[in-house]
Structure formats: C-alpha cells, structure tokens
Amino acid sequence: MRSGRDLWRVAGKTLFGLVVFMAVLWGYAFASQQWALRTPLPEGAPRSGRCSIWFIGSSTIHKWTNMREIMSPWDARNRGVNGATLDEIDTRYRLDDRTAGTPAAVVFYIGENDIADGMTGSEAAQGVRVLVMHQRTKMPNTPAFVLGMKPSPTRWRFRAQQQAFDRTIQPMIAKMSGVRFVAAGDTLLIDGQPGAFYQDDGIHLNDAGYRRWGGFIRRELESAPTLRYLRDCQPSGGHSS
C-alpha cells in the first residue's frame, strides 16, 4: 500500500503534467490566432467580378452552407470566420490585396459575438462603422449592406443591446454614400419570439433559418437600384453580353 508521501508525489506529477499540457494547448491556440490575424479573409480569390457578392462576418456567415444555392446565379463568396469578433474581421479585411478583385457588393454581418462578450450595442455599431468606412475607402464605387442583428434563443438576454446596435448603426451609415441597412433579423421572429430556425445550440441558424433569413437578404439586394444589373448574371457567375 502506498504511503501518503507517494500519493502526494503521484498527484504532483499528474498536476505538473496537466499544467504542461494546458500550456502547450494555450500556446497552440494563441499561435493559431496570431497566424489567422496575418491571413486575409477566406474566398477572396479567384478574382471577384461583376456578379460576385462578398458576405463578410462571423460564424452566422461562416456556417451558411446553402449560401450559393440561395444566392444563385450570383457568385456568392462566403468570407465568414467562425467565432470572429469585430477586431479580427477588421484586421483581416485590411489584409486583402488587389488579387481579390472588386465584387458587385459587400454584405456585412458582424458584432453579435462582441455584444455577447459584453460590448454594448452602441460600441459594436461604432466598430462596424469603422469597418464599413474601410470598405468605402477601398471600394468607393461598390455598394455595401449592413445586416441588423439576428435574434436567437440562447442570446435572447442580449436582445436589448442587439436592438440598440440596429438603432445606432442606421443613422451612422445613412450618412455614407452607397451603404444600406438591412433589417433581416426580425424575419426570424414569430409573434415576437425566435422561431424554429435554429440549430441545437440556439444560436446558429438551421437550413430553414438560412432560407428565411437569406431569402430576405436576397430580396433586399435585388431591390437595390445600384445592383439592377445582377439580373443579367448567369449561373456560371458570368454575365450576359
């Protein structure tokens, strides 16, 4: 039978091993994050064109697996980053170079994670304003669309701040030429509550949710006067001559 000293020695070695493992795991996660911040957003290449629409944002964009189907025949580029915050999207968007080309439009959905992490709706709106200003500087002739916050069951306690975001961002971007607010979030509510449009985590959308939410966004894009020529786009991502 082991003595108390032996048991303490084993416990000490186990604890030391656990600390080393956690340090390695943290170091890997930190290194991965730093590497990501030096990498442009996904799906910038091959070169974008007249029928291409960029969707930039966090996991709500990243997990939109039926985006191309819903947006067909447009060349929809999913440039979302899973779990991203405003700082990450802004940093990586700045890394885009000319090889990414210029799309017909850019659609932003970002700020939900920041609000869930404690940022106020007004603060998140300020961050999105800065991001959109960068887009206007890089692409002054490319229209931009800012999506309102989507409600969700798990994050329902943040709904007041999400609504504050919507209220704050609208007058901000109304002063910018070529930028439009899209109140897509309310389409996910049934009698004032989130409908059956979510995955088991109660945050991310399921297929029905994306079809409802994405369909609303598509109609807004179709109605934009600056994008009327998109009706000429072909399934190949090109456009008629």
What do these coordinates show?
The chain is of the alpha/beta class and 241 residues long. The chain is built from 8 helices and 7 strands. Residues 23-37 and 236-241 have low confidence and may be disordered.
Defining key terms:
single chain, 241 residues, alpha/beta, two-stranded antiparallel ribbon, 8 helices, disordered C terminus
Summarize this, please?
The chain is α/β, with parallel strands linked by helices and 241 residues long. The protein has helices at 4-36, 59-62, 67-71, 86-94, 112-116, 121-138, 159-174, 207-223; strands at residues 52-57, 75-80, 105-109, 144-147, 179-182, 189-190, 193-194.
Number of strands: 7
Overall geometric form: globular
Global structural class: alpha/beta
- Assembly type of the shown chains? single chain
Q: How many separate helices?
A: 8
Distance between the termini: 87 Å
Contiguous low-pLDDT stretches (5 residues minimum) are 23-37, 236-241
Largest sheet entry = 5 strands, parallel
Task: List SSEs in N-to-C order.
Answer: HEHHEHEHHEHEEEH
Topology overview:
Elements: H1 4-36, E1 52-57, H2 59-62, H3 67-71, E2 75-80, H4 86-94, E3 105-109, H5 112-116, H6 121-138, E4 144-147, H7 159-174, E5 179-182, E6 189-190, E7 193-194, H8 207-223
Parallel strand pairs: 1-2, 1-3, 3-4, 4-5
Antiparallel strand pairs: 6-7
Helix pairs in contact: 4-6, 6-7
